[in-house]
Amino acid sequence: MANISRWDPIDDLFRGFFVKPVDFSAQGAEAPSIKIDVKETPDGYAVHAELPGIRKDDIHVAIDGAVVSVSAERKQDKEVKEGERVLRTERYFGKVSRSFQLGAEIDESRASAKFNDGVLELTLPKKAAVASKRLTIQ
Length: 138
Hints:
Elements: H1 9-14, E1 35-40, E2 44-50, E3 59-64, E4 67-82, E5 85-101, E6 112-116, E7 119-125
Antiparallel strand pairs: 1-2, 2-7, 3-4, 4-5, 6-7
Domain SHSP: 25-138
Pfam family, one: HSP20
InterPro entries: A-crystallin/Hsp20_dom, HSP20-like_chaperone, Small_HSP
């Protein structure tokens, strides 16, 4: 049996007309993400968070008991030129955040943070355990 296809002159006229002359794939404009490593020591936690392409001023860390939240905002502009002709202009603006709960509460007064070469390092000491009080029954 023969296959019959319908001929559409308008569709055939524009087929292949809207071919992208430039590759618009998002090779350099990934959505931001935070990759986090957490290590526990007897005294606290060491957190390493990868934040490539994000400035130090755009990073915020919040500690609420045993919950740690890291948020960041990325602003990226990319323009590819060939001579005086602009071939492609890309912009990316976005926020990303991660929250995680640790096994013990954090002593916020002794916590510290350093940011160097796209890596955020948090030193989060554990809060001193309060000795339980034994009640005497009268």
